[in-house]
Amino acid sequence: MAQIQACICMFLDRQAFLKSSVKYVVAVGIFVLIIPIIWLYKPTLLGIDIFFVPSNSMAPTLLPGQFILVDSWRYQRQSPQVGDVVVVPFQINGQSSYLVKRLAEWPTGVYRPPETPWYLLGDNPAESHDSRYFGGVAELYAPVTHILFRWNGQRIECPCFMALPVNRSPDSRSP
User: Fold this and answer.
1) pLDDT band at 170, cuts 50/70/90?
2) Distance (Å, rounded) from C-alpha 18 to C-alpha 15?
3) CA–CA distance, 143 with 84 (Å, rounded to integer)
4) Which of 107, 61, 60 is nearest to 86 (CA)?
5) Average pLDDT over residues 101-125
6) Partner of 156 at 20 to 30 A CA spacing, among 62, 71, 132, 148?
7) Average pLDDT for residues 147-165, to the nearest whole number?
8) What is the rounded distance in angstroms from the CA atom of residue 111 to the CA atom of residue 91?
9) Homologous superfamily assigned to 47-163
10) What is each CA distance from 35 to 25, 54, 161, in whole angstroms?
11) Would you call 152 helix, strand, or coil by DSSP?
């Protein structure tokens, strides 16, 4: 009788172990599947996206090595404004890329094609390849809202998760 009870206990323990193992595998599987999907579709699902600032073109507002957060839903709710720092899709040597620039007023006397309504300037004119060289752009992706952190090549530098300073008066520099 004691042997039968021992067998029943082992059987029940094994079933409990298998149930907990299956729950663990399912939980890990869901995590492994869901996290990449959320990461890939974060602009659509969460309304955010993250970009890297590669150059000095937006200094001193944004510095090379900073990771920035954009609000991919904002321009669905409100119109872009002069002074917004934005991320725009751009073709460089046939490759799709993104630029980070500030929306500016079109300079007086410059022809403004209706299909490219947005004029962009970098905050650092000496190092910025912007609308002074390539003209206006047709599409804006999203406005920059926060600086997440800066990677200096060796470590993370703070401030971390800092709201982007607002500057609503960019000048329209001519080439």
Assistant:
1) low
2) 5
3) 6
4) 61
5) 91
6) 71
7) 82
8) 22
9) Umud Fragment, subunit A (2.10.109.10)
10) 15, 26, 22
11) coil
CA distances from 135 to 19, 58, 99, 110 (A): 63, 18, 14, 10
Is-contact 137 90, C-beta < 8 A? yes
Judged on CB neighbours under 10 Å (0-12, 13-18, 19+), 104 is: buried
**Which of 80, 72, 63 shows the shortest CA–CA distance to 119?**
80
Name which residue leads in pLDDT, 132 or 163.
132
85, 86, 92, 95: CA torsion to nearest 10: 150
- Using CA atoms, how far apart are residues 79 and 23, in angstroms rounded to an integer? 47
pLDDT of residue 174: 45
The confidence score (pLDDT) of residue 11 equals 52
What confidence tens digit (pLDDT) does each residue in 118-136 have?
999 999 999 999 999 999 9
Helices (H), 41-96: 42-45, 74-77
Q: For the chain, which residues make up each domain, given as ranges?
A: 2-40, 47-163
Contact assessment for residue 140 and residue 131, using Cβ atoms and an 8 Å cutoff? no
* Residues contacting 134, CB < 8 A, separation 6+: none
Q: Which two tokens stand for residue 50?
A: 């993250």
